[in-house]
Write a structure and sequence with these properties.
By secondary structure, the chain is α/β, with parallel strands linked by helices. It is about 35% helix and about 30% strand.
Length: about 300
């Protein structure tokens, strides 16, 4: 039996109330060593506030956050030695170039000249011009510089607040490759995003946050390897449609105007389904892709029903 991995980041009943429903409320989760946790939610859900609490920039009203054996707020000077950070709002010091910023930042955290070889590799891959004056950089250039600063440290923990904002599709793809490489070397990561597809590609688990609360945490592997499949079937004739749906308990959705039925069946029942359908005249049958978006949409509907 494999040894249980230790908890690196522990968020315990944390709240930060700015009033009028803004902030976050009673947030609890753990991130284990080598795990990547994503956080998705609408703008204003509380993602950035939570990340800033973990970084020690904001003191929580209640609860506590521990990073290794340190208090995230009280011991923030110590925790930052273990962390790479991509902020949501980037403000550089007044230095002459991106190159100067990266070297000053790296040396302050103990990097030696020979350690900058990896930084140069990331700079090349992100197509970053480090000669530019940071305060006049475009949003995309600032984002790339911040990515280099966070990744070049090879820190055991990397915290990312919407790291792909401002990047074009090619650079976004390169960023995701970099994140997977950090994951491969064993980094523990937290990443927020408004793009759930990004999180699905790089995260082990994804938390859904809304109105300051964590509503659910999904296991990405379980969703990708689930034992059921969804199929959408359209029949050419109304009589076939009516015959097929009669007494079925696996129906997700019916669209009688199109003679369409969407069903969810166990994987091992798929051959039986196709045998059943041979006697009907079909217009089409297609598997409905099930992903994190589908899962969270279903959970949201379920939670809304529970509240009513």
């Amino acid at each position: 039996m494999s040894e249980e991995k230790k908890t690196v980041i522990s968020v315990n009943h944390v709240s930060k109330d700015y009033g009028q429903g803004r902030g976050n409320f009673d947030v609890t989760f753990r991130i284990k060593q080598g795990e990547t946790l994503g956080i998705v939610g609408e703008n204003g859900a509380g993602k950035t506030t939570l990340i800033r609490q973990i970084m020690g920039f904001i003191k929580s009203d209640t609860g506590n956050i521990n990073i290794y054996n340190y208090d995230a707020y009280k011991d923030s000077a110590s925790t930052k030695r273990y962390m790479g950070y991509i902020p949501g709002e980037i403000n550089f010091p007044d230095v002459r170039s991106g190159d100067e910023f990266l070297h000053d930042y790296g040396r302050a955290l103990g990097m030696k000249d020979e350690d900058f070889a990896y930084a140069n590799e990331i700079i090349s891959r992100m197509q970053l011009d480090i000669r530019a004056y940071p305060k006049r950089m475009s949003k995309g250039m600032k984002q790339k510089t911040s990515i280099v600063a966070a990744m070049m440290l090879k820190a055991p923990i990397i915290i990312m607040d919407e790291p792909s904002i401002g990047l074009d599709p090619l650079m976004r793809e390169e960023l995701l490759k970099l994140i997977l490489e950090q994951k491969e070397r064993g980094a523990t990561m937290l990443m927020s995003s408004n793009t759930i597809e990004e999180l699905e590609r790089v995260c082990d688990r994804v938390a859904y946050m809304s109105q300051g609360k964590i509503l659910d945490i999904a296991d990405v592997h379980e969703i990708q390897s689930r034992m059921v499949r969804d199929f959408k079937i359209e029949f050419k004739e109304a009589k076939d449609y009516q015959s097929f749906i009669k007494n079925r308990k696996d129906i997700l959705r019916l669209q009688p105007q199109y003679h369409q039925a969407t069903i969810r069946i166990d994987k091992k029942e798929i051959p039986h389904l196709f045998d059943q359908l041979e006697k009907y005249d079909l217009k089409f049958i297609s598997e409905v892709k099930y992903n994190l978006t589908t899962y969270f949409n279903e959970r949201r509907k379920s939670l809304n029903k529970e509240e009513k």
